[in-house]
Amino acid sequence: MKLEVVWLIFIMDLTQQYTVDWGYLFIRNFLYKAIYDQVKPVKPFNDLTLREKAVLSGSVGAFAAFVTSPFELAQVRMIADGGLPQPIRRNYKSAFDAINRIQVEEGGSRALFRGAFAHVVKLAALNVSLTGPYDYMKEKIWLVFGDFGFNHFLALTWASFWATLFTLPLDNVQTRVLKAFPDPSKNRLNYQNYLDVFKQIFFYERIHGFYAGAVPYYGKMFLTAWLTCTLVNGVMDSQKRAAGLEEWQI
């Protein structure tokens, strides 16, 4: 395969992945800010508690995940297609072609939400495991060292570790469900339900199977944490500063 073709496939895959991610982040962050402004304490621009932030971020993350599930399904299949034998490749032309063919070939609109439960649980857990550890560590570092530039980076590093630990097993389960063919003869392994996916991963691959791809996944979690926490907290901090609050840093 020519180098130009390899780069073209890589760029297409990256574009598909981050188009879905940006759509998810837009919905998640828009809802987070809108609901935050409705439920915040009476004091102007004051923070919610860490528990309230975790519940809020988990809820809006789950909703955004459900809405974007069909595109996640299309993305995973399009990326995985190149690694399949030629006779069983799906050869989707675009994300919208994938969504249309999934509906036509696999039983209607319900088929678009294959693996949606795992996707929702994963991103709800992701938001909780990002927001809680990030806010906690950022506050503790600020109390000890003051307003230093490395506070944000260390808090992101810490939060990304916990997000990876809690959500990578769910991501691996979700990916296997999304990639599966309705025709059992085309799959190397066939899963009856989510519990069966966990059982087979552990039986054939042990604990390492749940954390396959941990290093690149951590990089993705750090980027996701940076986008989510930086954008949301940047808006909150600027508003607290404008309101003259001394505790804007935490």
From TrEMBL:
SUPFAM superfamilies: Mitochondrial carrier. The chain crosses the membrane at residues 150-170. Keywords: Membrane, Repeat, Transmembrane, Transmembrane helix, Transport. Its main location: membrane. Solcar repeats lie at residues 52-140, 147-238. Belongs to the mitochondrial carrier (TC 2.A.29) family. It is found in: Membrane. It is a multi-pass membrane protein. The keyword Membrane applies. Pfam families: Mito_carr (PF00153). PROSITE patterns: SOLCAR (PS50920). It comes from Paramecium tetraurelia. GO terms for cellular component: membrane. GO terms for molecular function: transmembrane transporter activity. This is Mitochondrial carrier protein. It comes from the Eukaryota.
